[in-house]
Structure formats: C-alpha cells, structure tokens
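Let us walk through a complete example step by step. Step one is to write down the protein sequence. Step two is to encode the small molecule, zinc ion, as a SMILES string so that its atoms and bonds are unambiguous. Step three, shown after the inputs, is the structure prediction itself.
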Amino acid sequence: MPRTTLAQDAQEVVRAIALIKLGARMQVLETELALPRDRLIRLYREVTGVSPPKGLLPSSADWYMTWMANIHSSLFYNTYLFMKNEAQCTHLDALTKAYRLYREHCTNTGAEALLDLTRAWTLVRFFSGGILQMTQCCRCSGKFVAYKYDRPTSKACALCQPPSRAGKGAKKSGSAPYREVAAPAEALSLALAA
Ligand SMILES: [Zn+2]
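Step three: the predicted structure of the complex.
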C-alpha cells in the first residue's frame, strides 16, 4: 500500500462510512478504498452493528435487462454519467452522489429502490468492462442500459415498450400488475428525460 498522509487516510475513512451507510458490500469497499481489509471490517461493524455479509456478488448483466430493473438502472446510470462528466466528480463521488439521488428519487415517487448500492456499483463495472452501453431509445430518445453487442436495430427503452405482462410469475391475462409498477416507472421517466 502506498504511503498516505493522515488527512488522506481520514478522507478514505469518511468515504468508507458513506458507502457503508448506503449499503456497500465488502468487495465494493475493498475495490474502491485504500484501506486494509481488517479496518474496513471494523468500520463496517461500527457503522452497521453487524458483521459484513459473506457470499458472492451478483455477476450477471442479465439482471439489468429485465423491464423494471432496466428503468431503474438507466435512471441511475444517467445520473452517474451526469455527475462524472458534467459535475466532474471522481468515479467514487459520482457513484455515491448518483446513488443518493437515485434513492431520493425513488422515495419521492413512492417507488421501491430496486437497485442497491452493490448492484449500482456492479452496473458501472459492466460499463467500464465494455459489456454494457447506453443506447438511445428510438421513440423518446432517452438513453437506456443495453448490451454493447446487441444488434444495432432501432430499439425502444423499457418505458416506451413495456412487456405484455409484468414479472415472470404474472398471469397473461392480468394487466393490473403492470399498472401497479408503471405508475412509479412513469415518475422515474421524468428524471430520465431530463
Ligand atoms: Zn423510450
């Protein structure tokens, strides 16, 4: 580990606490912060009162392609890009700020925050790993999360092209589940279009 000043060290601790409060898992903390693992574990326990959960992180990009998850992911990633490119935040600041805004937006619109911080972080990694890209919707021209190597046909976003049924378990005939989830989705779309 490179030598760090006390001030830099303190900043890393502040960043770690912010991430832990937002729900970051150990792998996120270890990747993003220059703090030893044992200190991160102690910080995690201090902030949350419990030990960090074990287990593997989600590793498939397919999760981001399901209808509702795609709307949430697109909203988050558009915000992340704004923070990084327009507000000139570092990757970590952009992640933290965009995630906070995303959660506030969900709270304000009464939508459940489908994306936890680890999912949001993994999403950014899929983008930097060249697996995902933002694609422009052929109807509303908003940008949404898509596979990088999808055929470049004209594609509509999840908001413009909702599935005929909502969720895997839903009966084909029932349109009610769609309406239930569509209301918060429409509220989210306002932020996407901005
Ligand atoms: Zn669209």
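Step four is interpretation. DSSP finds seven helices and two strands in the chain.
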